[in-house]
Amino acid sequence: MAKHETQEILEGRLRSAQLKVTAPRVAVLAVLTGRGHLDADSVFSNIVTSLPKTSVQAVYGVLAALVTAGLVRKIEPAGSSALYEARVGDNHHHVVCLNCKSVEDVDCVIGASPCLTPSNVNGFAIQSAEITFWGLCSKCQLGIDAP
To answer: Got the DSSP string for 2-68?
Structure first.
């Protein structure tokens, strides 16, 4: 996915998902496409200057609609606010820093680890897995203030 998609592309993604194109939806999708792993307050902070009449509650509503439509993914690392990203459609995972709480994507895990194959699926047809790795980012390991 491109870091910065044009407004026309973002509007097309909304229409393809059967969503009405609105300025807040385009703005939220643009912010997440460019940055990812943001909480609702950070998304709001990134769009409030261009859309001053938008509220945090409106951002939550937009995020919910985008998640339901499959355009945005919501992740909920333990001890952290819900985070949103525009990287969807693949089975990637995340690594979270225990110190600064930064989050990075990890492409699908590889190898044969016993915990990656469920011992019992209770009749479910497994479609994806969510794995969160926890550790210290390189900046925190070096004692540098992370973003």
So the answer is: -SS--HHHHHHHHHHTT----HHHHHHHHHHHHT-SB-HHHHHHHHTTT-TT--HHHHHHHHHHHHH
What is the predicted pLDDT for the residue at 129?
75
Scanning the structure block, which residue is given the tokens 């016993």?
A: 114
- In 3D space, the residue among 51, 2, 69, 59 whose CA is nearest the CA of residue 28 turns out to be 59
DSSP 8-state symbol, 116: G
Tokens encoding 49: 């200057």
The CATH superfamily label for domain 90-141 reads Ferric-uptake regulator, C-terminal dimerisarion domain (3.30.1490.190)
The pLDDT tens digits of the residues spanning 52-101 come to 999 999 999 999 999 999 999 999 998 889 999 999 988 788 999 999 99
Dmax (CA) of the chain: 51
The secondary structure element, H or E, covering residue 141 is helix 138-141
- Per-residue pLDDT band at 17 (split at 50, 70, 90): very high
Fold that domain 7-75 belongs to in CATH: Arc Repressor Mutant, subunit A (1.10.10)
Q: Mean pLDDT, to the nearest integer, of 108-117? A: 65
